[in-house]
Write a structure and sequence with these properties.
Blueprint: E1 6-15, E2 23-32, E3 35-41, H1 42-48, E4 53-56, E5 61-64, E6 66-71, H2 91-104, H3 108-125, E7 127-132, H4 143-154, E8 157-160, H5 170-189, E9 195-197, E10 199-203, H6 209-218, E11 227-231, H7 235-245, H8 249-256, E12 263-267, H9 275-281, E13 285-288, H10 290-295, H11 303-308, E14 313-315, H12 324-339, H13 347-362, E15 382-385, H14 398-405, E16 411-416, E17 419-423, E18 426-427, H15 432-449
Parallel strand pairs: 1-4, 1-5, 6-7, 7-8, 8-9, 10-11, 11-12, 12-13, 13-14
Antiparallel strand pairs: 1-2, 2-3, 5-15, 15-16, 16-17, 17-18
The structure holds zinc ion.
Zinc ion (ZN) binds next to loops.
């Protein structure tokens, strides 16, 4: 769905976000080939680009689309599902009794609908870019093509990868490696601005040295490979690495040569203090998922300590939700209650985590245009909120309005690459009811196989 037309998107109150946030009342952007070329007041931009199409934002508050830096499209069909065993009492039991039982029985069609359901919710909630981490051991080969088809049909952007793991034996580990490499090469051969490939690994405690060596061997000669894996989400991951390899996970990844490549280290909840040195020196990108960490009771990641040392920490949802507004609200609450000090997580730090660092992470995948700010040279990924501020709203106090006043139900319009996906809360290009009906059918079958 590459958009070629020239379009002015106007009559919007624009909050540009980005490094130098600006508020433009009655503003407009001029978009060419899906990329913002100009920004200003509606009258000025309309006069400057006559003959362009005009999209009327009807006074909505326009923001750049939200970015979720870590999620799992495959988890959608688990919603409301009962477990077969007693409630898990720790993180490893959560994996064994829920996620590793679920992902094993996912079929290709489950993968497609699980993705579609989540992507539709992204559009509804104003999320226009996601970085996904996929697992379906019963359907590995071609699984990323299935997700890519759903992503193309949805019209949003995604980075996709397969979680390599040893838990199903050597053959499955190799199949995962091949799927990552195949898909990355395919994405490079047919460049599109919507889908990007990465190299997924589940986590250190499910990947032996032999498997990590095979991963590194398979990408020899390929540049710009980004690794995407869970790191010390639970103490079990760190203990496993210390017992088997004599060092915690980040030391192990460095010793193995993984960190010569860009790494997206998800969670880093139970890292040792000296591992922050490695995050810093190796320029590892961290993604924090506060809701998921609270739900799994794995602990509180020392993200402020990391950020003080210059580590890039972004925000993900770990498949808990497609609603970034919800995740951003939970972020300071977790850290305030944990520290017992309401000053914890200043607005500057929050703005950096919520709005600046995810676009920075995305630069590793999307190099042709920027994301996360309404500015010339950025993709025209825009959302319109039906938000009437009850107090003065400006660029300086935006975060206060955002955290305490805005929510995803206010999203009226979602635009990606200059293309309207939702307007007046109606999804324009997909049959939402049919997709949800089929996903319910597939979920009830899946629950029986689970
Ligand atoms: Zn995850």
């Amino acid at each position: 769905m590459e958009e070629k037309r020239k379009i002015v998107i106007g009559n919007a109150n624009i909050m540009t976000l980005g490094e130098s946030n600006r508020f433009i009342k009655d503003g407009a952007v001029y978009v060419e080939n899906g990329i913002i070329k100009d920004i200003g007041h509606t009258v000025e931009i309309s006069d400057k680009y006559p003959g362009s199409d005009f999209e009327d934002m009807r006074g909505l508050l326009m923001l750049p689309g939200n970015i979720i830096a870590h999620t799992h499209l495959y988890s959608s069909l688990a919603r409301g599902m009962g477990l077969k065993d007693d409630a898990p009492s720790n993180f490893v039991e959560i994996l064994e009794r829920l996620w590793w039982r679920l992902d094993k029985v996912l079929t290709e069609e489950d993968n497609y609908y699980s993705a579609m359901v989540a992507l539709l919710q992204c559009i509804r909630y104003g999320t226009t870019t996601i970085i996904d981490h996929h697992a379906s051991p019963g359907a590995i080969g071609g699984s990323l093509d299935v997700l890519a088809r759903a992503v193309f049909e949805s019209g949003i952007r995604a980075s996709l990868c397969y979680e390599v793991t040893d838990r199903g034996g050597e053959e499955e580990a190799i199949a995962g490696i091949k799927e990552n490499v195949r898909f990355m090469k395919k994405c490079r051969q047919y460049p599109t601005s919507f889908v990007r490939g990465a190299f997924g690994i589940h986590a250190s405690f499910t990947a032996s040295d032999e498997t990590l060596k095979k991963c590194l061997k398979e990408i020899e000669g390929l540049d710009n490979v980004v690794f995407h894996l869970h790191v010390e989400e639970d103490m079990a991951d760190r203990i496993d690495s210390e017992e088997k390899y004599g060092v915690p996970v980040l030391f192990r990844l460095k010793n193995m040569g993984v960190t010569k490549h860009p790494v997206l280290a998800i969670h880093c909840v139970n890292i040792r203090e000296d591992e922050i040195d490695i995050l810093e020196s190796e320029k590892i990108l961290v993604v924090h998922n506060p809701e998921s960490n609270m739900n799994n009771a794995v602990g509180v990641a020392p993200v402020l300590e990391m950020m003080d040392r210059g580590v890039t920490v972004g925000l993900g949802t770990d498949g808990m939700t497609a609603d970034y507004f919800q995740e951003m609200k939970v972020l300071p609450l977790l850290h305030k209650i944990h520290s017992g000090d309401p000053r914890t997580y200043s607005f500057d730090r929050l703005y950096q985590t919520i709005f600046l660092n995810n676009p920075k992470i995305c630069k590793h995948f999307w190099k042709d245009a920027s994301l996360g700010a309404i500015e010339p040279g950025a993709y025209a990924d825009l959302i319109g909120l039906d938000y009437i501020p009850p107090t003065p709203l400006n660029a300086d106090n935006f975060l206060g309005h955002c955290l305490f006043g805005m929510n995803s139900s206010m999203i009226d319009t979602t635009i990606v690459n200059g293309q309207l996906l939702m307007k007046k809360r109606k999804i324009l290009h997909l049959d939402e009811e049919r997709i949800f009906a089929r996903s319910r059918e597939l979920a009830s079958k899946l629950w029986k196989r689970f």
